[in-house]
Design goal:
This protein has twelve helices and 19 strands. It is an alpha/beta fold.
Length: 347
């Protein structure tokens, strides 16, 4: 069975591994310049920056099992347990301690990209890996499919895994079935912007003896969601004389593309300045924009996903995979990719 896996995030990589090791002839196609999706680690000037997913929780056993399978157990580190903080209403910008209901996520010593590198190495010589090549169309070619990449010849395959967010999936499927395309397009997502900023420690009046602070959604609206004191819970992520702060923002409509990276850095600095007593602008900033970061789940979300899957299977051997369909987090994405592979291998 020849299978095209469209999308090289966690779900696509997981599906490709299981399909290839199950005897499939796999082509994994990623539009971007790297595999990993929302996992992106940057190392620069002595800093280790997680621009996307920064770890996994204790309730995510599939990630841990995969790390053992990839012989990456020694990479697992558990951040220091520190007090969690919450930021009160914008009119009263004080961080106050609250009982910690969550702890900083477990992560990997060399960054979460270590997991992606391990999965990619697992696929080498087992699959045809292609990056920087978007798929522009998929057509039905009985008994299989024809996949048209932007670069290179069309691929004739027996099955397809759509391991991409709902919007690009809808765009590819609409010519095949407008109804399924509309269902996929109705699966809402929200964007996230991650701003990681480094400050000289003398320029920060706050002690940073906490894991960070969160902002209740009712207070923040579209704005800051949380700020992690990375250098406090993971001291090796920054040089000793620097404080590293990772802020996650909810952009309002239009802000994701309408605001420059410099603009995001300035916005976050102005938010943090009175809260943490910042005495000067950051010495270094890393900004990442994630357009389809998280699904917006409502009462009909699961039923719409099920409707889309049922409609797709009526067309042929084609599966959806990813956090957009089966829940947030690395564990859910892994399980979704593997489930899609199992379903195809069983047909």
């Amino acid at each position: 069975m020849r299978v095209a896996v469209l999308g090289g995030g966690i779900a696509g990589l997981a599906a490709a591994i299981d399909l290839a090791e199950g005897g499939g002839d796999v082509v994994l196609i990623e539009a971007g310049d790297r595999f990993g999706g929302q996992v992106r680690t940057t190392r620069e000037r002595g800093f280790l920056i997680e621009e996307g997913a920064d770890g996994f929780g204790p309730d995510q056993p599939t990630v841990r099992a995969l790390l053992r399978d990839l012989h990456l157990d020694d990479e697992i580190i558990r951040p220091d347990r520190l007090t969690a903080l919450v930021l009160e209403a914008p009119g009263d910008l004080r961080a106050v301690p609250v009982p910690a209901t969550t702890v900083p996520p477990t992560t990997l010593r060399s960054g979460m990209a270590t997991l992606i590198n391990g999965m990619t190495r697992r696929l080498e010589r087992k699959a045809d890996l292609r990056i920087g090549n978007a798929v522009v169309a998929v057509t039905r070619t009985r008994p299989g499919w024809t996949v048209y990449p932007e670069l290179g010849a069309a691929l004739v395959v027996d099955a397809v895994v759509l391991a991409v967010p709902a919007r690009p999936a809808a765009w590819l499927i609409h010519p095949l079935s407008p109804q399924i395309g509309r269902v996929l397009a109705s699966l809402g997502t929200r964007a996230v912007v991650t701003v990681v900023a480094a400050y000289p420690k003398p320029a920060v009046r706050h002690s940073l003896t906490a894991s960070g602070f969160s902002v209740p959604r009712a207070e923040s609206g579209d704005g800051v969601e949380l700020c992690e004191f990375v250098s406090s819970v993971l001291p090796g992520r920054a040089p000793p004389d620097w404080a590293l702060l990772r802020t996650v923002m909810r952009p309002a409509r239009g802000e994701l593309v309408g605001t420059t990276d410099e603009g995001w850095a300035e916005v976050v600095h102005e938010i943090l300045r009175p809260v943490l007593g910042l005495q000067q602008p950051p010495g270094a900033v890393w900004v990442a924009r994630w357009a389809d970061a998280m699904p917006v789940v409502d009462d009909r979300y699961a039923s719409r996903v099920a409707e889309a899957r049922t409609g797709l299977r009526a067309l042929g051997r084609i599966e959806l995979a990813g956090a957009a369909y089966d829940g947030q987090g690395l564990d859910a994405a892994l399980q979704s990719g593997r489930a899609a592979a199992r379903r195809l291998l069983a047909t």
